[in-house]
Amino acid sequence: MCCGAPGKLPYTEKKLGVELLALWGKGDLPADANVTRVTLIPFRGDRPVVAWKAGRIMLPEGDVQPGEGIDAAISRVLLEQCGVLNATWTALGHFRARATSLSKSQVPGSVSYQVLYAAEAGSLADFPADEAYERRIIPQRDLNVLLQNGYAEVRREYADALDEYLIERLKVISVT
Prior knowledge:
Elements: E1 14-16, E2 20-25, E3 35-44, E4 47-53, E5 56-58, E6 61-63, H1 70-82, E7 84-85, E8 88-99, E9 111-120, E10 123-124, E11 134-137, H2 140-150, H3 155-175
Parallel strand pairs: 3-9
Antiparallel strand pairs: 1-2, 2-8, 3-4, 3-6, 4-5, 4-11, 7-10, 8-9
C-alpha cells in the first residue's frame, strides 16, 4: 500500500541516504521479509519514552544483528537505549527499501525493510543497559516536535502512522 491517510497525497519513493530507495507501506510484511532496521516509539502509559545520547533526544532504533530475530532486536534496542522491559509492540508501517548501485551494505537491487513499531512498556529498568544512553519520558507534544525536527526525511510517514495508532489507542481506552 503506497497511499497516505485519507484525503492526503500518496507517499512517494524517497532516498534513505545514498544507498536505498524506499517506499512507505502498511500492512503485513512478507513472510520472507529481510528486516534490517527497527525504529520504536515506546510509551509508558500515555507518555512517550525516548532515548537521550550526547545531548540529543531520539527515538530508539537500531539494526537487526545477523542471526537475530525481529522480536529479539526490538527487545534489545528498547533495553539498551531506553531501559524498557517486558514490552509489547505493534508494527505501524515500514519502508520497503531497494539497494542502489551505491550500496555498500546490501547487494544492489536487493530488497530490505525498515519497520516502525509502537511499543507499550511493561516495566522500566533503573536505567538503559547501554551506559551511553539515558531515558527521557516526555509529553506527546515533545514527541511531535522530535518527529518534525529530528526525522525530516520520514516525518510525514511516521507522523501519519503515529496519529492512526494514537486514535486507535483512544478508542480502546474510551470503550473500557
